[in-house]
Amino acid sequence: MNYENILITQENGLATITINRPKKLNALNKATIQELHEAFKSLNDDANTKVIIITGSGEKAFVAGADISEFAHFNVTQGEELARNGQAILFDFVANLSTPVIAAINGFALGGGLELAMAAHFRIASDNAKMGLPEVSLGVIPGYGGTQRLPQLVGKGKAMEMVMTAGMIGADEALACGLVNYAVSQEDLLPLAQKIASKIMRNSPVAIAHAIKAINDNYTDGTNGFESEITQFGICFGTDDFKEGTTAFLEKRKATFTGK
Ligand code: COA
Questions:
Q1: Are residues 180 and 53 in the same domain?
Q2: Is the residue at 18 inside a domain?
Q3: Is residue 1's pLDDT more than 90?
Q4: Of these residues, 81, 115, 173, 251, which one is catalytic?
Q5: Do 147 and 55 lie in a common domain?
Q6: What is the pLDDT of residues 152-162, one digit of tens each?
Q7: Ligand 1 pocket residue status of 115, Cβ below 6 Å
């Protein structure tokens, strides 16, 4: 598929999606959200893709938010529909992907931009990153999962402060409060994401997919995460990767996983 707003590169099992609207600071308009959905879906469906990195083009922004010009005139029904559809096709979709997704935050990650980074499985930020949920400064609240995922990552009090002040925090503060796993220089951002991706790729893709499901189930209403872990653990015993991983260990050799 041809994309107008995103770029995709693929090399040795690692796919990198770059949101490419630098003149609009990579703001998420409807077309970009749809393209991201298609891209994440097709990469996740491709067994050759082992890890996905999501980042923004240019040196200024990861994503400066949802495209304000597209929803400024919306009414109540349209507002609700915007949030529901966006959560379904992109934000929850990414969070529940079975392929690991790393957000490489290379500048402003505001509103929907931070929400997209938070939907990824974990985050790395460069030292020029500025992160925040400024929606209340526009008279609205985060609608792409921000009120739920931010407190999960940084705790309720810090999330309340960030949302109420509409303020931005830098990479070091984001590291200190658990919003990102690493804060590095701009030139080290993608190399570090790639290095972590290569460590992930040594492991069983099928086991990783079950681990993502079990961890996410801890945050799913009405689901007992411990019970989910038992189920996912059991399923692993029926996989080729489990046989290969345990056999390779006992034979003192490196495992070759097929992801089956
Ligand atoms: N939606 C639509 N367009 C956006 C945007 C957004 N969320 N964020 C930036 N842009 C556009 C600007 O309108 C501008 O377009 P123009 O050149 O056609 O006027 C372009 O991107 C560059 O942004 P600009 O504001 O000139 O850059 P800056 O360096 O002065 O400021 C920000 C950077 C991030 C502080 C500022 O763009 C901003 O506050 N953006 C909105 C952030 C926000 O509220 N996001 C949450 C949305 S729910």
A1: yes
A2: yes
A3: no
A4: 115
A5: yes
A6: 999 999 999 99
A7: no
